[in-house]
Amino acid sequence: MGVGLGQYDDARLARLAQAGGGRYLYVDEAGTAQRAFAERIPAARPVVARDALAEVLFDPAAVVRYRLLGHERHAERPADGVAVAGGDVPAGQGLTVLYEAKLVPDARADLGQLRVRYRRADGGGAAVFEAPLPRASVRGRYADASGEARLALLAAAFGEKLRGAWWVRGVAYTDLLAQHDGLPPAVARRPEVDELRRLIAQAATLDARRDPAAGQVPVAGMDFDHVPIIRE
Q1: Which of 111, 138, 165 is at the close of a domain?
Q2: Which end of the chain, C or N, has fewer beta carbons within 10 A?
Q3: Integer CA distances (angstroms), 206 to 20, 89, 209, in order
Q4: Are residues 51 and 29 in the same domain?
Q5: Number of domains present in the structure of the chain
Q6: Which range marks the domain in which residue 103 is found?
Q7: How far apart are CA 111 and CA 134, in angstroms?
């Protein structure tokens, strides 16, 4: 648990939580402390699956390229023979993972498959859950996506903006605020979603970084299929 506004190694705490099969939360004010200790860390949750591992297998006939947001420099799949530790899954826990994918034009094949491997918590042995990623789930417009999907995309875009990611060079903080203002009222009224807007607005006033690629690759000339090495 990261508490306060002092200098501490945020990345190390996140790695410790991952290595220990736990969770890392950051608390900077009373409101987030209330949510962290009263809502996000319940006293007891039964474990429904152990050593759980999930992977997404994209079909090359439907997907030209893809990236897992925030993990562009990590291998999508471990090499053969490399053991990867899974994690315990408490009841009611959810996880959102976002991929950016470029689709094959006019392809009719499904995008791929989701596969989850785990051990049954009751000692019933190993199990595998598989489900297709239907092409019919793709929406033609951002406005057609569900409110929860749009919120996840907004939060991800904000994270990409904070880390200065190549893919959001053309996205301004005002664009993010406009996306927030377009969320369905039932979603936007939630305290954590309202806080997200406050953080975006605050970042807009503090972020004075220059674009390191401005002199080499103009935003108008960006090629998302070929990301250059930017030399600062």
Answers
A1: 138
A2: C
A3: 35, 38, 9
A4: no
A5: 3
A6: 46-138
A7: 6
